[in-house]
């Protein structure tokens, strides 16, 4: 299932944040979205995930047009996301944070216990996989920044999305955790999940991604594998402001 | 499993106490007046618990639940007097009608976040007061509406006793429903909305549909309490049925007892409800009621937004085991983890 | 002729609504706070004006000299002392409760101090009126409108032309950015609240000139005012002003066929319709979508 946008445009008052962006992410790969500050990456993410309605253009996932749909519809279609400043449910325990991603189908299903065996086991599976199982019963607000980042990812994974959008996964985490996140993304990708990552840390981007899209002033200016992007003069120009 | 025994202790035991208290109170009440005060307190308990379906789960504060109760009362009364429905049939139909009306109200109030909901909830009280006072050909206007008693010929003390048990049953039903939601997947989604609505939405929770559903359930229980009040008291006056004060008492009770707890609103309703009855006897209706309510509400919001009872329990817990408070536990674990990470990185 | 008279009266009333709604909009812009106590302060100011006239025997307009700075100070205190101490995550809900609690206290204290009796200022020029193209307009209504119009103009000039206004607008539009360029956003927010409450002082004095007042009157004002800021688009001052004039006019015109009480419902109908159809309001207001 390919995630792509066609002619996406979003303006805030007179400021055009995204200016006719045609972007296609490669399915089954780790995609990265890079660009200087203010180039519209986060707004682009928000348009794709339905948090903001685009003015023009469309968002397509596989054969479904998701343009302007509610965020939960897009999430249920199989596009999960994390937030730039990581967001968890502060007064819920780690397990509950992950269980909150369970989507009941129908009334009877919705009235069943939220802590049913099968789901709790899956939640613990993800906590273990991300190395925060020992914090399962701790409230998210009492966890460290890095732990919360992992917890947020665990919640997204619980929903089994086909494509996962990570907004600055390396933001504010220590080098050891950074390595772990990099490894995790590669592993999860090897299991068949598509990733799209907005990231400023070039080392991480260059080491884990298969395909890089470069944004500048609200539109993609280059796309290709890391080696190609590294050699592209337009990319350098965008970053240096020439 | 430790969870099972814990939930039995925190849900089962209070439930038992509550059931026994409801069963015994009418025989222990020294006079009909005390019994009628008991009915009023139970009415508050149902209202506060019904309010907590919205306030506790989603974190949306409604100041207009008094109006929903008033609407339930008037609908019950009008269905009996104008449509000749039997008393309790009218009560059920009225609750269904109010729940149906809650759909468009919720649609307007819940589509956007926070502020609009509060605005709509207050506006609801003001507009209904206006309508019910002015539309006197139907509602009786300021003269009020007399609702026929459901048990004609019953003596006053027996009448109070009957309604005490009816309210007790309704309270248990509301509590059971709240508990059912609290432990369900649906409830998990609602609590996620309270914590972070955007985040819940991004995880695939249809937040608007969830909020609307729980608002409708809340309105139905509120209307049932209001309708029961109409049948019990027998006389409705728009000034009291659509009073902003009713809504603020409900909020005060729920917040005081704690909105995250099943029994919080009941406890708050008992404390505030008893105090209200006491002050009514001692001082009558004075403007100082408003001042005290406002002051208490302000104090709770400023200093104990989680409720007085939860704050006190937390304090006791902190004093009792200073050594292993939850924050420290995690920080220690955190440090250990970082140490492990460093070592892993080195090797 | 009756219609023309109503149009004039509606516009005069709309002016007062616009001033008060501007205050509400300020609070909302600064802190996303729906200030329920705004109209309670309005009635408080009206009582102070009545008291000035009744006890001291001087013109109620003179009470402005005291009430405007007093309310400004109260606004600063309210923001700095109470609202800024609430947790940001639950600010919108809890601030409503705080201001609601304040409204209850003011209403209760007014009832305690002055009893629930209806009060009305007796002025020498209270019954004077003049003829405007055939419409009879009471002088006091014109004074009230002039007071509102002058204050709104002053507020506008302050916001657009002064250093403080610039800082306040920056704080409203982008708090973090404002802080980055060296604005003390906390203090500015406090002054903004003071300014908002000052509009209630002016409005209350204007109101007292030709209205019978009683402690619970503020509920009749907060409903329409909330409707106005929602219809205008939460956070938009020009939107609020336009909605104020429009709804004031509608209320005044509807009084002819429907009577005074039913005409009030126009505000609530407009409120519900706006939220159901276009929750961001009809006159801009980019903040509304999310709050």
From TrEMBL, chain B:
<feature type="transmembrane region" description="Helical">
    <location>
        <begin position="87"/>
        <end position="110"/>
    </location>
</feature>
<protein>
    <submittedName>
        <fullName>Branched-chain amino acid ABC transporter permease</fullName>
    </submittedName>
</protein>
<feature type="transmembrane region" description="Helical">
    <location>
        <begin position="117"/>
        <end position="135"/>
    </location>
</feature>
<feature type="transmembrane region" description="Helical">
    <location>
        <begin position="208"/>
        <end position="232"/>
    </location>
</feature>
<feature type="transmembrane region" description="Helical">
    <location>
        <begin position="33"/>
        <end position="53"/>
    </location>
</feature>
<keyword id="KW-1133">Transmembrane helix</keyword>
<feature type="transmembrane region" description="Helical">
    <location>
        <begin position="262"/>
        <end position="279"/>
    </location>
</feature>
<keyword id="KW-0472">Membrane</keyword>
<feature type="transmembrane region" description="Helical">
    <location>
        <begin position="162"/>
        <end position="181"/>
    </location>
</feature>
<keyword id="KW-1003">Cell membrane</keyword>
<dbReference type="Pfam" id="PF02653">
    <property type="entry name" value="BPD_transp_2"/>
</dbReference>
<feature type="transmembrane region" description="Helical">
    <location>
        <begin position="291"/>
        <end position="316"/>
    </location>
</feature>
<feature type="transmembrane region" description="Helical">
    <location>
        <begin position="7"/>
        <end position="27"/>
    </location>
</feature>
<feature type="transmembrane region" description="Helical">
    <location>
        <begin position="60"/>
        <end position="81"/>
    </location>
</feature>
<dbReference type="InterPro" id="IPR043428">
    <property type="entry name" value="LivM-like"/>
</dbReference>
<dbReference type="InterPro" id="IPR001851">
    <property type="entry name" value="ABC_transp_permease"/>
</dbReference>
<keyword id="KW-0812">Transmembrane</keyword>
<feature type="transmembrane region" description="Helical">
    <location>
        <begin position="238"/>
        <end position="255"/>
    </location>
</feature>
UniProtKB/TrEMBL annotation, chain C:
<feature type="transmembrane region" description="Helical">
    <location>
        <begin position="33"/>
        <end position="52"/>
    </location>
</feature>
<feature type="transmembrane region" description="Helical">
    <location>
        <begin position="133"/>
        <end position="159"/>
    </location>
</feature>
<keyword id="KW-0813">Transport</keyword>
<dbReference type="InterPro" id="IPR052157">
    <property type="entry name" value="BCAA_transport_permease"/>
</dbReference>
<dbReference type="InterPro" id="IPR001851">
    <property type="entry name" value="ABC_transp_permease"/>
</dbReference>
<feature type="transmembrane region" description="Helical">
    <location>
        <begin position="189"/>
        <end position="209"/>
    </location>
</feature>
<keyword id="KW-1003">Cell membrane</keyword>
<feature type="transmembrane region" description="Helical">
    <location>
        <begin position="221"/>
        <end position="247"/>
    </location>
</feature>
<dbReference type="Pfam" id="PF02653">
    <property type="entry name" value="BPD_transp_2"/>
</dbReference>
<protein>
    <submittedName>
        <fullName>Branched-chain amino acid ABC transporter permease</fullName>
    </submittedName>
</protein>
<keyword id="KW-0472">Membrane</keyword>
<feature type="transmembrane region" description="Helical">
    <location>
        <begin position="90"/>
        <end position="113"/>
    </location>
</feature>
<feature type="transmembrane region" description="Helical">
    <location>
        <begin position="259"/>
        <end position="277"/>
    </location>
</feature>
<keyword id="KW-1133">Transmembrane helix</keyword>
<comment type="similarity">
    <text>Belongs to the binding-protein-dependent transport system permease family. LivHM subfamily.</text>
</comment>
<keyword id="KW-0812">Transmembrane</keyword>
<feature type="transmembrane region" description="Helical">
    <location>
        <begin position="6"/>
        <end position="26"/>
    </location>
</feature>
<keyword id="KW-0029">Amino-acid transport</keyword>
<feature type="transmembrane region" description="Helical">
    <location>
        <begin position="58"/>
        <end position="78"/>
    </location>
</feature>
């Amino acid at each position: 299932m390919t995630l792509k946008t066609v002619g996406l445009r979003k303006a805030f008052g007179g400021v055009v944040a995204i200016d006719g962006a045609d972007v296609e992410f490669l399915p089954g790969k780790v995609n990265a979205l890079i660009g200087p500050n203010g180039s519209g990456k986060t707004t682009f993410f928000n348009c794709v995930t339905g948090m903001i309605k685009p003015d023009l253009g469309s968002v397509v996932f596989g054969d479904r047009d998701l343009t302007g749909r509610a965020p939960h519809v897009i999430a249920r279609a199989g596009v999960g996301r994390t937030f730039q400043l990581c967001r968890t449910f502060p007064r819920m325990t780690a397990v509950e944070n992950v269980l909150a991603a369970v989507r009941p189908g129908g009334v009877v299903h919705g009235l069943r216990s939220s802590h049913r065996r099968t789901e709790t086991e899956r939640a613990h599976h993800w906590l273990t996989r991300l190395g925060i199982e020992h914090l399962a019963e701790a409230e998210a607000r009492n966890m460290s920044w890095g732990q919360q980042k992992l917890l947020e990812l665990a919640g997204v994974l619980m929903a089994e999305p086909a494509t996962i959008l990570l907004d600055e996964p390396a933001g504010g985490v220590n080098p050891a955790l950074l390595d772990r996140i990099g490894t995790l993304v590669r592993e999860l990708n090897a299991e068949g999940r598509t990733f799209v990552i907005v990231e400023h840390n070039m080392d991480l981007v260059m080491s884990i991604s298969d395909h890089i899209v470069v944004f500048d002033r609200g539109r993609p200016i280059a796309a290709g594998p890391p080696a190609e992007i590294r050699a592209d003069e337009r990319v350098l120009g965008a970053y240096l402001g020439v | 499993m430790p969870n099972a025994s814990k939930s039995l202790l925190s849900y089962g035991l209070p439930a038992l106490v509550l059931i026994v208290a409801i069963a015994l109170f009418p025989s222990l009440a020294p006079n009909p007046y005390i019994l009628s005060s008991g009915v009023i307190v139970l009415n508050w308990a149902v209202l506060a618990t019904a309010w907590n379906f919205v306030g506790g789960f989603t974190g949306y504060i409604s100041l207009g639940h008094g109006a929903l109760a008033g609407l339930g009362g008037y609908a019950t009364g009008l269905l009996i007097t104008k449509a000749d429905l039997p008393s309790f049939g009218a009560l059920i139909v009225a609750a269904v009608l109010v729940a149906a009306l809650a759909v468009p109200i919720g649609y307007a109030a819940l589509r956007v976040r926070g502020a609009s909901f509060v605005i709509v909830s207050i506006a609801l009280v003001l507009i209904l007061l206006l309508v019910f006072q002015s539309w006197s050909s139907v509602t009786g206007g300021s003269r009020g509406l007399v609702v026929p008693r459901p048990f004609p010929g019953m003596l006053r003390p027996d009448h109070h006793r009957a309604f005490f048990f009816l309210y007790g049953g309704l309270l248990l039903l509301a509590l059971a429903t709240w508990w059912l939601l609290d432990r369900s997947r649906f409830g998990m989604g609602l609590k996620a909305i309270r914590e972070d609505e955007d985040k819940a939405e991004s995880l695939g929770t249809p937040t608007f549909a969830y909020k609307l559903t729980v608002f409708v359930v809340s309105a139905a229980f509120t209307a049932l309490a209001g309708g029961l009040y109409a049948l019990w008291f027998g006389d409705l006056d728009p000034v009291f049925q659509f009073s902003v004060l009713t809504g603020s008492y409900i909020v005060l009770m729920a917040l005081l007892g704690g909105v995250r707890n099943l029994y919080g609103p009941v406890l708050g309703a008992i404390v505030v409800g008893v105090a209200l009855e006491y002050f009514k006897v001692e001082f009558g209706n004075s403007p100082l009621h408003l001042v005290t309510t406002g002051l208490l509400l302000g104090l709770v919001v400023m200093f104990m937004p989680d409720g007085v009872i939860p704050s006190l329990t937390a304090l006791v817990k902190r004093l009792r085991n200073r050594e292993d408070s939850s924050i420290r536990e995690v920080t220690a674990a955190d440090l250990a983890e970082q140490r492990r990470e460093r070592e892993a990185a080195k090797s | 002729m009756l219609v023309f008279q109503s149009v004039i009266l509606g516009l005069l009333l709309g002016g007062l609504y616009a001033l008060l709604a501007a205050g509400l909009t300020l609070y909302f812009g600064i802190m996303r706070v729906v200030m329920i106590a705004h109209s309670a302060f309005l009635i408080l100011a009206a009582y102070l004006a009545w008291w000035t006239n009744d006890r001291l025997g001087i013109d109620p307009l003179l009470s402005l000299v005291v009430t405007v700075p007093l309310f400004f100070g109260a606004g600063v205190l309210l923001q700095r002392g109470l609202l800024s101490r609430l947790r940001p995550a639950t600010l919108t809900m809890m601030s409503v409760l705080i201001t609601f609690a304040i409204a209850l206290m003011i209403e209760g204290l007014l009832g305690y101090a002055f009893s629930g009796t209806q009060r009305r200022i007796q002025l020498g020029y209270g019954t004077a009126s003049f003829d405007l193209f055939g419409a009879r307009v009471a002088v006091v209504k014109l004074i009230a409108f002039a007071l509102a119009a002058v204050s709104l103009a002053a507020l506008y000039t302050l916001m657009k032309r002064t250093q403080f206004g610039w800082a306040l607008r920056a704080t409203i539009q982008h708090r973090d950015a404002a802080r980055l360029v060296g604005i003390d956003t906390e203090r500015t927010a406090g002054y903004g609240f003071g300014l908002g409450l000052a509009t209630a002082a002016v409005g209350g004095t204007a109101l007292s000139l030709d209205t019978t007042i009683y402690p619970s009157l503020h509920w009749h004002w907060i409903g329409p005012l909330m409707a106005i800021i929602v219809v205008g688009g939460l956070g938009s001052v020009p939107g609020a002003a336009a909605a104020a004039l429009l709804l004031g006019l509608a209320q005044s015109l509807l009084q002819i066929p429907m009577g005074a009480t039913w005409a009030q419902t126009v505000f609530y109908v407009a409120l519900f319709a706006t939220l159901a159809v276009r929750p961001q309001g009809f006159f801009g207001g980019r903040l509304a979508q999310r709050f």
